[in-house]
Amino acid sequence: MKKKNTFKTFVSDIPKNLFSGFVVSLIALPLGLGLALASGAPPISGIIAAIVGGTVVSLIGGSNVTITGPGNGLVVVILAAITTLGNGDMHQGFLFTLAAIVISGILLIILGFLRMGSLGDFFPSSAIQGMLAAIGIGIFAKQIHVMFGNTSVKGSIIQLLIKVPEGIINLIKTDNSSMFYAGLVGIVSLLIMIFYSKIRNRYFQLIPAPMWIVVLSVGMYYYFDVFAAAEYPIDKSILINLPDNILSNFAFPDFSKVYELSFINAVISITLIASIESLLSIKAVDKLDPLKRRSNVNKDIKALGLATVISGFFGGLNVVTVIARSSVNVNNNGSNRSANFFHASFLVAFILLFATELRKIPLPALAAILVFTGYKLASPDNIKKVFKVGKEQLYIFLITLFTTIATSLITGILVGILVTFIIHIIINKNANLFFKNVLKPNVLMFKEDDIYYVSVKNFSSFLNYTKLKSKLNQIPETEEAIIDFSLCDFVDDSVMENMSNYAQSFARKGGHLEVIGLDDSKSISNHPFSLRKIMPKQINQINKVLTKRQKSIEKISEEMHWKYDAFSAQEMEELPTFGYFKTREISKVTNVLSNKDCTIFDAHFSEGKMIAKQTIKATMLHIHTQKNIPNFTLDKEGIFEYILDFAGYKDINIDKHSDFSKRFYLSGKNEEKIRAFFTDELILFFESNKQYHIEASKNGLLIIGDERLASVKEMKALAYFGIGLEKTL
Amino acid sequence: MFNAELVGVHVGNKNEQKVVALEKLLNEADALQKPFNAIWQGGKPVDVILQTCTKQNIDLLILGAIQQENLFKYYVGSIARKITRKAPCSVLLLIKPSVERVICKHIIVNGLKDLKTEETIKTSIFISKKLNCKKLTIVEEIKQEEIHVEVNDDRSLRKVNIVKERIKNREDRRVKNILKDVDCDSLSINTQSIFGKRGYSIGHYAKVKRADLLIMNAPTKLGLLDRIFPHDLEYILSELPTDVLIVK
Fold first, then answer.
1. What per-residue string of b and e applies to B142-170 under the rule 16 or more CB within 10 Å gives b?
2. Which of A62, A432, A443 has the CB atom closest to B152's CB atom?
3. Which among A296, A308, A327, A291 is positioned nearest to A67, based on CA atoms?
């Protein structure tokens, strides 16, 4: 019986997964080509990885809404492997690297069977941050030259960075028109990537930024081809190179170097980065899953390993779980693994149908996407975040970063671990604490009065975090749990960060997780993830100087006799229950205006991850209703809804009010109750007022105007709308 | 209190000064019902005490101990621990002896599936009555391996919790069976199952619960190998959570 139901939902979900798979494939196509190019591999290899990954992992994987394909973390490793293994011959190097990819896939499968999927847990978070930043800088340094139309620059990462100003001057002074136009395309593409998220037009947003770049650059080619008198100014050598017959020209791995040290080195780094990147992504995507499912990490690792092996044999890159594409999937309502499958299918269709068009894409356009990716990985924001946790974290971060850039990834991460450990010893002035207790089973869990109680002893850091984690994973997230660190002499930032992640996922699923016992411990900084420090929900900056907007909000609050607060903890807790925030992470709620039942506030939240990440601030109204209301969504009707309608959503039409039904898009689960709820009076109210996006849940009504901060005037209008609506109810 | 004869063992030569000091100590303490029997003997402390135990037919050996061993002592063994490991009788390890007797409020006893457990639980009930202790918790430690299922996703998590519940009920039944024919009206006896490494978790639990006395089964046999790969009692001995009574 139950099985049939799941099958039914699966079938009924197919249209929307088809849709989101399509959107994801739009972003996966340029990313796949670009990542492969940046790795020094033939562009098609990235697409092969995405196609194989999407097919295999969707069939046997253990996660739900993740998208798999070539990953950006691996770019640097694969590029290094191709150069060192090929001794200058890129093609031969690629064949050797394919062999390394196949073997790393086998290693991943073994890791999955040994349940060692949690390899990433053994690395301190600052060291991983440092490593990722180093990868970002590596991608950035190499691709920025390509973006300027110069594909021939060579050198180490540091040398490449030093050459950047030179590259800009060259671009301006150059008399080579091909290079000049190519550079121009690159810069325009970068601008599209940067300003894409600033434009909140939903028709524009329907196509992801990387696809806009592809569409525009291919469009430019046809403009020159058909309309313009001049020749296409970009030389063929700077255009993307795809094999003439895509179906037959697979590269095959060359296993003849298997026993060489450099080969083994490549295998280890590829496996390490692949598993870390996949794990971080799976964890992050689980937090976005609207249905709040838990991924089977080890099963997923096995599937990724198998996909990597197959992809390697067909001449494709590693298959990893990728965060940016997965978040696009979630934002487009992908709900199960079929989205990943459809993304692969659409890629096959694209590559077969549009191969000629794809050959017209200039490399700088793709490089621009990668420059943006690299920047996002190593953005100053990340460094700032690390620094906020504590000064010592910055040391770890920077040491790992520079060692990775100067040597290799493996050396970098090992040095990072070592430095973290040494710093922990210095902070504690006691090495014995670690050596004596590292192997002891230091976590005790028992259930008492239906509350899970977890006590941690001695110390808790990245060294023994798996013990704590395995216990925590046994607690259903719908329950209540208390983590007691009072017997711990030392808790490090990796653990604190993970605890806050757990707290979040418990809150999402209706449970509660609390960390206690750190009140009397000293901390390095006042950041919540700081070493041995209790976590506040929100950092209150009470003494902050109010801005002009805040002052005027304060003024109207006096006029209207509403209460004004700079922050609200209650809203932070209640907001996640609304459907709107299922896939969006709220970071802050500020400027709260409230009377008895209505609250107007600015919510800061983010949508998507990595390059698809957009931070949005929007003003919203939250009404705590007295009576129970059914869950529903009410929106303006438009073309966009027709698309959604096609993708499996249903508009509830109310018979007597055809005008209302035409103008509003109403949807929800319990149709009967919603019909009963929408009385004539209420419909009249909605018809005669400005149209907002309205959502109802058990915590009341959430009313959103445009997805941006409202002006003071708009806030007033919103407030009156709220008061009116409340009266009508 | 237990109506028993107290035998003091002093390892070392008898001299005037020490006798006076001891007399003074005894005078300060509550009067004993039976005469105090002091034994003065030279030699290696461990051997002497162990010998005396056998010779005098001692039922309970009381020792003072430090709370944590360092790495060197852990392998070589402090006096108290050596004796504990080898003693032929029950041993009481005191980590915080005080002149004023601290009222014992909470006793924790292990409820392992073991032949000796029944005896241990009965002893602990006897002691709690004697000490006027109102609260007794029987802790069943369940090994992680007994669950057999690994948590991977939501479904296996549900399964694990069902299995846990089942094991918990089984253990509870077993302990109830033991308690069936023991009179324990004046006591509130709780059972608590914990999942974790045997021996280690009960100590951890005792510490978390701030128990005043932890009562354990005596292990069957302990060799050096057990100390390198510690289990059960060795964990408790390496990190005494509170006063510990080992029942033999």
1. beeeebeebbbbbeebebbbeebeebbee
2. A62
3. A327
Number of domains observed in the structure of chain B? 1
pTM here is: 0.73
Per the document, the length of chain A is 729
pLDDT, one tens digit per residue, over A465-502 is: 878 887 887 787 777 887 877 777 778 878 888 888 88
* Beta carbons of A200 and A707 less than 8 angstroms apart: yes
Q: Which domains does chain A have, with CATH numbers?
A: 16-379 (no CATH), 391-427 (no CATH), 435-545 (3.30.750.24), 563-728 (no CATH)
**Residue A58's closest CA among A46, A45, A48, A67?**
A67
Range of the domain at B114: 100-247
CB pairs under 8 A between A and B: 64
In a domain, B48, yes or no: no
pLDDT number for residue A501: 80
User: How many angstroms separate the CA atoms of A306 and A319, rounded?
Assistant: 9
CATH number of the domain residue B139 falls in: 3.40.50.620
Host H or E run for residue A139: helix A125-147
Judged on CB neighbours under 10 Å (0-12, 13-18, 19+), A664 is buried
Nearest to A631 by CA among A577, A584, A576, A582: A577
Angle between helix axes A363-377 and A125-147 (nearest 10 degrees) is: 160
Among B238, B247, B231, smallest CA distance to B199 is for B231
The minimal CB distance from B196 to the residues A294, A444, A484 is found for A444
Separate counts of helices (H) and strands (E) for chain A: 29, 14
Angle ∠(B188,B189,B193) on CA atoms, nearest 5: 145
Which DSSP category does A201 fall into? -
pLDDT of the residue at A688: 78
Q: Does B49 fall in a domain?
A: no
Q: Which of residues 151-190 of B touch A (CB under 8 A)?
A: 151-154, 156-158, 160-161, 164
> Residues with Cβ < 8 Å from A141, sequence gap 6 or more?
A157, A158, A160, A161, A164, A374
For residue A727, the tally of other CB atoms under 10 A from its CB is: 8
**Percent of chain A residues topping a pLDDT of 90:** 6
- How confident is the model over A111-161, as pLDDT tens digits? 888 876 666 677 888 888 888 888 888 888 888 888 887 777 777 778 788
B221/B242 Cα distance (integer angstroms): 23
Q: DSSP letters of B82-112?
A: HHHHH-SSEEEEESS--SSPPPP-EEEEE--
B150 chain-A contacts, CB cut-off 8 A: 115
